[in-house]
Specification:
The chain has 63 residues and is mainly β. It is built from no helices and four strands.
């Protein structure tokens, strides 16, 4: 499992750096962090093996 990059902005009081929300924890984390509600902020330019995104596909309705 990987952290999920989100489009949401994330801010830390007193820190004036643009961050994006990263949710859910990844395979390197302890069990307490492996929840979708667990969120951290990361620089949009950062990368790591345990960060990614989820693809969504919505099938078209049959006619």
């Amino acid at each position: 499992n990987v952290w999920e990059w989100c489009e949401d902005s994330f801010s830390i009081e007193g820190l004036d750096i643009p961050l994006k929300a990263v949710k859910g924890g990844g395979f390197r984390n302890i069990a307490e962090n492996l929840k979708i509600g667990f969120t951290i902020g990361e620089s949009p330019e950062s990368c790591a093996a345990d960060r990614g995104f989820r693809c969504v596909w919505s099938p078209s309705k049959k006619k």
